[in-house]
Amino acid sequence: MYRIDFNKLRFLICDDNPHMRRILRTLLHSFGAREAYEAEDGATALEMYSHYVPDIVITDWAMPIFDGLELTQMIRQPSANNNPYVPIIMLTGHSEKKRVIAAREAGVTEFLAKPISAKGLYQRVLNVVANPRPFIRTRSYFGPDRRRNANPNYSGPERRKGGKADVIKQQPLLEKVKTPE
Fold first, then answer.
1. I want to staple 28 with a disulfide (CB 3.0 to 4.6 A). Which of 14, 33, 149, 153 is the partner?
2. Inter-axis angle of helices 68-75 and 42-52, to 10 degrees?
3. What is the pairing mode between strands 88-92 and 135-137?
């Protein structure tokens, strides 16, 4: 068995609300994380993303300058960033189906509705660490595979938009953070 050492992970928290940033930082520290950088808007977050190269990005949807959706789209440009594969957890108080779909289409890895709980945040972080989804590259999309469950027996028509897809396996963050018990 193994234990996850959150101290080995670097987080970028992006939210325009200082109280929410403090809550997220406190929760991450309670999990054992020590490196949690904070940004109050999308532009600052992108600059910090390039400078600190975090392992996980946690971003609010609604922010000034550019929002979490635009931040995600900028991070997911393979030629523009040193790590377009970083897991991105989207936070929002708006969890309507159209918003979840828009976040997924932008390349968000996990979605977490506010108000958040320690358990919900922990589960999302644990999921991106232990079960990374492969990345998909088509003409119109680059990001984590939006299909949560691959059915090898599926025989229906291809549902993927954008034509043929390249599947890019991800190196699990688990190797970086697991320690023997």
1. 33
2. 30
3. unpaired
